[in-house]
Write a structure and sequence with these properties.
Largest interface: A-B, 59 and 56 residues
Number of strands of chain B: 35
Number of helices of chain A: 5
Strand order of the largest sheet of chain A: 2-1-5-3-4
Distance between the termini of chain A: 32 Å
Shape of chain A: globular
CATH superfamily of the largest domain in chain A: Beta-grasp domain
Number of helices of chain B: 19
Helix content of chain B: 25-40%
Low-confidence stretches of chain A: none
CATH topology of the largest domain in chain B: Aldehyde Oxidoreductase, domain 4
Strand content of chain A: 15-25%
CATH architecture of the largest domain in chain A: Roll
Structural class of chain B: alpha+beta
Low-confidence stretches of chain B: none
Radius of gyration of chain A: 16 Å
Number of strands of chain A: 5
Structural class of chain A: alpha+beta
Radius of gyration of chain B: 28 Å
Oligomer: heterodimer
CATH superfamily of the largest domain in chain B: Aldehyde oxidase/xanthine dehydrogenase, molybdopterin binding domain
Largest sheet of chain B: 7 strands, mixed
Distance between the termini of chain B: 83 Å
Order of helices and strands of chain A: EEHEEEHHHH
Helix content of chain A: 25-40%
Strand order of the largest sheet of chain B: 3-7-1-16-13-14-15
CATH class of the largest domain in chain B: Alpha Beta
Strand content of chain B: 25-35%
Chain lengths: ~170, ~800
Amino acid sequence: MAKTQISMTVNGQSVDALVEPRTLLIHFLREQLNLTGPHIGCETSHCGACTVDLDGKSVKSCTVFAVQANGANIRTIEGMANPDGTLHALQEGFREMHGLQCGFCTPGMITRAYRLLQENPNPTEEEIRLGIAGNLCRCTGYQNIVKAIQYAAAKLSAAPVQEAAE
Amino acid sequence: MNDMTPTSAERAEKLEGMGCRRKRVEDIRFVQGKGNYVDDLKLPGMLYGDFTRSPHAHARVKKIDTAKAAALPGVVAVITAETLKTVNLAWMPTLAGDVEMVLADGKVLYQNQEVAFVVATDRYVAADAADLVEVEYEPLPVNVDPLKAMAPDAPVIREDIKDKTEGAHGPRKHYNHIFNWQAGDKAATDAAFAKADVTIKEMIVYPRVHPCPLETCQAVASFDKITGDLTVWGTFQAPHVIRTVASLISKIPEHKIHVIAPDIGGGFGNKVGAYPGYICAIVASIVTGKPVKWVEDRIENLSTTAFARDFYMDTEIAATKDGRILGLRCNTIADHGAFDACANATKWPAGLFSIISGSYDIPAAHVSVDGVYTNKAPGGVAYRCSFRVTEAAYAIERAMDIMAHKLGMDPAEFRMKNLIRPEQFPYTSTFGWVYDSGDYQTALNKVLEAVDYKALRAEQKAKQEAFKRGETRELMGIGVSFFTEIVGAGPSRNCDILGIAMFDSAEIRIHPTGSGICRLGTKSQGQGHETTYAQIIASELGLPAANITVEEGNTDTAPYGLGTYGSRSTPVSGAATAMACRKIKAKAQMIAAYMLEVHDDDLEWDVDRFRVKGNPERFKTMTEIAWAAYHEVPPGMEPGLEAVNYYDPPNFTFPFGAYVCVCDVDVDTGATKIRRFYALDDCGTRINPMIIEGQIHGGLTEAFGIAMGQEIHYDADGNVTTASLMDYFLPTAVETPHWETDWTTTPSPHHPIGAKGVGESPNVGGVPCFSNAVNDAFAFLGSTHIQMPHDNWRTWAAADKLGLHG
């Protein structure tokens, strides 16, 4: 199948690649860029395991073509840690509050929570639950995920961190 | 010693041993997207496999034409049953003593059954080619109703065995019959019913559901034609069993097969069995000489690999009029689908279903289970429970409520009256199980007090009166459940899988500098084994948990074990870990005695060291002893400090718990809101309370999903109508209730550290608790039993049936 040239910024790095027009963004990220953090759980945009941040929005990359992301600025879980390599407050919060078990939903969940906190730095529990309703977890029952996001919100609001350049 | 010397308690705290809310080791990689799951694996030259599947639930396969698929650029091979026959793999044995088609051989028996396996250089090309395989079908009559499976004119599901009168578990009474299994004393039970004041009888259905872990089933097979070695990475809850089965059916010697289970994205029973996808990936790799990856999509997962339940339980209780249970009877039809691929211990076709007498002192009981074939997917796994335990718990706990209401007794009071009493432990149930330990009344009382049960019942009564007066359209339900599990399979006298006793193992090696590695036969799928096994070692050996690596899943390095399911890791491998530690500790004591120039008996253990009795300033720490083990062992002693233990438990363990659920039901919409859920679990000794609470949250959420909305549903033509997450209910953060957890601790007397297992308790106890709550809301209107799942539609329909809509 004929291929199309695309370019985008992924986790701060410029990427140029050739893809089939039908290649899904999740397959492009995982198989061509070897970013295997985002996962595939349902292929119907229900589970959110494939969530990435695309131009300031949470996007389920299993239902976006790679060509649609041409020119976009994308952040995956691999680009979530602080510039000095320490864990982002969300990553730390998920560990501190036991917000994960099998780890399969975690990259998508953290990436979604990152955008949620950008939009609403001090969400209530109800706002968090609604905000992550597009991301399914089969292990935790969400209660500790909510706490993890609250942990991060508290930490980030105590010491405001600039959003990394996009 | 001086004031700076840490006390025993301070030293113990630093170890992060048992009882510590230790943060998880695994999380460091998972929160950074650096987990290593099967689909993350990329090997040079790797090919991708995909299936052509049957659109029909039952049809003869007249012709398969693979020419167009094979001609597509990028396609390397197309495999059908005819190909598999050349290597005698068109059919494979199941764990339940049946055989199962790997690819359709002559006919298809359920929708989405595997018909052809296409192998290509790219996963998109493989999917394209799977669509190009042309199959000519002749549709056959379909039966998806297990209650009609043994009708005289029912469609013949299994032509290959239709004339066989004997199955793997005894006589067959119909061509769609698989087995009849019975337990208990039928005559005594009949006598109990004959003299009872009150009896109840209800067909309690536990519908077909699916574990649906977020990661589907997948594998990469790589056969090295030069060396003859086969390596298989896969989503395996039981990697050693997979290797043995692969060797038995492929005839490749077991030492030439290397099975590796990397990180697993949830299992819940879905990843215990062996599936056609694994076999086809292996065969394709042998045929092509290249690594072959097979990854299930969600529709394939929900419609083909490993359903659970599908039990139709006709349940009866007999009691005296003052509420003493005299007898229990349950006749069950079990729908096993088209092949009996049920994942049970081999000798137990209905698993441990005879735990159905539950937590109650019941003098007489009898159960009978008939397994039948239908045009549905095979499986029958224990979805977050020990084998068929959740079905048993659901039946008894629903039946208890039905009887309580008939007697006019409060459901909690009726339970309290019949609970096994503390002084009866170890308690031998009417079915012969020996419950290891329990203090049921304390647990139930604690929960009832915590939720102020009396006040809840008073509020419910007031609401019922208001409802009758037409002042509200909302009903309040209070669900009570008390469950006892039977987990930790298992004693080899009871349990084996294909003849392999269900022991498990731990192998511990302490390095010279006092750190170490522990390898086990189990396999974590999110349970946090890398964290918790190290805590057992920390407490047993006095070495910091942080200094212990825990490794599972590689059959070349891990000692043989039967894997992780049925809450067996802690009861079995946890015990093996403690026993291996004790071997190491015994040797360490001899080394310490030699170093301190005293007799072994003159030493006593103190957290992380052996010290001389009466002279605590003379001691050797485990770290010092580890070093000595590699350079100054006593004369005649082997150097090194390591041990292995294969643990065959003397009995199962019996975790228990008491749950209360409060819900509000809108009778006009059927919408149900869980107002409160309080869960008290007793899992014996608690290794990591943080992980226990997390497991309970997760198990309750799965129970909520099952009770309130999950069902793998088939229409009359055998079409699966719930095969994607559009139709199959997985709770989101919005619907999921807030969980309150509590505990009592009644250690198992036969387990080296007293632990019983916990991961499945909340599912076993949670499902009946939700269902009892919804049913309880309607009970005062004369309703006895509303079937699960309690989604809005069914709840509305139940209200409608009761005439509540005018």
